[in-house]
Amino acid sequence: MKPDSIYRAAHSAAEAYRKDVIERLGQGHSEAATAEWNQQRFWLWVVDRAIEHIEGRRFWYECGRRNFSRVNQRPELANAIRKLRKLQTRLQVDGLPTFRQKEAILEELARLANLLLE
Question: Is 4 helix (H, G, I), strand (E, B) or coil?
Fold first, then answer.
């Protein structure tokens, strides 16, 4: 498995998102697409990368060698990953939460994401 950089991958993902928005809505939406990626999409995307690393599916330099495939060594991480995915779904699919609900979801998501990496 070839190690990769989250920073390079994030840049590529952000650029792909920007291009998709431009194709659908026009060049005038380029800056807004970049801002949306940075503000709304990056953190959920990077949590998915951390999960890939912890599960041993992809090695990301920034997550560290010690954390790679660690879910096999610490079973409680599998439960944290399940909870993380549920929270992500609530943010992406469910209806618009209140600000208080969104804040609580993001706090729990951050707490669980911090459990993944030492």
Answer: strand
